[in-house]
Amino acid sequence: MTTLAERLGYRADDRLVIVNCDDIGSSHAANLASLEAMETGVATSATLMVPCPWAREAVELFQGKDVGVHLTLTAEYPTYRWRSLTGAASLHDHQGYLPRTVAEARERAQVADVAAECRAQIEQAYAWGVDVTHLDSHMGTVQLDPRFFEIYLALAEEFRLPVRMVSAPAEPVLGFASRAPAAERGIVFADEVWAQWGRPTGEQMRSVFPRLKPGAVAEFLVHPVFDGPELRGYDLAEAQFRVDDHACAMDPEIRSLIAVEGLIPISYRPLRELQRAGALEAA
User: Fold this and answer.
1) Digit-coded pLDDT (tens) for 166-186
2) What are the C-alpha distances in Å from 18 to residues 149, 239, 249, 263?
3) Residues 91, 85: contact at Cβ < 8 Å?
4) pLDDT per residue as tens digits for the range 3-14
5) Is the pTM higher than 0.85?
6) What is the DSSP letter of 163?
C-alpha cells in the first residue's frame, strides 16, 4: 500500500511531522508567540480563528506563512468573548457570544447556521488574502458531531482543502465513521494527530517522536502564547499550558530530537497540493 509520504513525493519509509500553532488571532500574545514559534522554533503551520479580535493582526503578521482556518464555534473564556460572523441566534449563548463549551454549541446550533458560519469564516480568510492551507476545528466542535462533520467534509471538498482528522485509534470514540468517508471524497489528512490537552507537549513529543510510523504524516498541536497580563487576564485556568507550549516550540532539545530521529518537518501545504492534484486527475 502506498504511504502518504510516498504520495507526497518522499520515500516510503520517511516520517513527516507537522507542528501546528492553533489559535492565532485569539490574542496579541498568541500571535507573537506563534509567529516566533514558526520563524525560529519548530512550528511549521498555524490556524487562524477568524472571528477573534486579533485575527486581522494575525493576517498581517503571518503573510507568506502557511496558515489554515481554525473553524470557531465556541468562545471558551469567562470574560474574553467573541461572536460569530453571521450573527445567527442559534450560534450564541444567553450573553450574546459563541458558547463557552462544545456541549452547549452542539445543543444550541442549527445545522444550517453552522454551515453558513463555517463558510463565512473560510471566505473571510480568503478575502483578507490568506492562502488557506487547510481546515481544522477549535475545540474539535466541528469534528465531534456527525451533523457538523458533514459540513466539515463538504467545505473541505468544495474549497479543495485538507483537514485535521482524528487518528484511527480515536475514531471509535466518536461513534461515527470519519476517516473513510473523507478519503472516499478525495480529502487528504495526516495519518496521526497528537494532542493531549493537559499533558506537557514536550513530554508528548519526546515520547512519540521515536515511535512515529514509517511513511506516515503526524500532526502535533501547540498553543503558544507569551506570558503576561494579557494572557493571565483572559485565560484564568490554563494559561500555563500555553506558556509551556511556546517554550516547547522554542526548545533546542525538541529541534535536535527531530533531527536525530530523521523526521521531516512539513506544513499542510503539500497535503493541499496533493488533494488538488487528485481532484484534477479525477476530473
Assistant:
1) 999 988 988 999 999 999 999
2) 22, 23, 12, 10
3) no
4) 999 999 999 999
5) yes
6) B
Mean pLDDT of all residues belonging to the chain: 96
- Enter the C-alpha cell of residue 158: 468544495
* Structural domains for the chain: 4-282 (3.20.20.370)
Whether 58 and 24 have beta carbons less than 8 Å apart is answered as yes
Provide the angle, in degrees to the nearest 10, between the axes of the packed helices 239-250 and 252-260: 50
Q: How many residues does the chain have?
A: 283
The amino acid that residue 266 corresponds to is I
| Grid cell digits, residue 15 | 516520517
Whole-number Å distance between alpha carbons of 173 and 103:
16
Contact predicate 85/121, CB 8 Å? yes
Cβ contact 18:267 at 8 Å: yes
207: exposed, middle or buried (C-beta count within 10 Å: 0-12, 13-18, 19+)?
exposed
pLDDT for residue 279 is more than 80: no
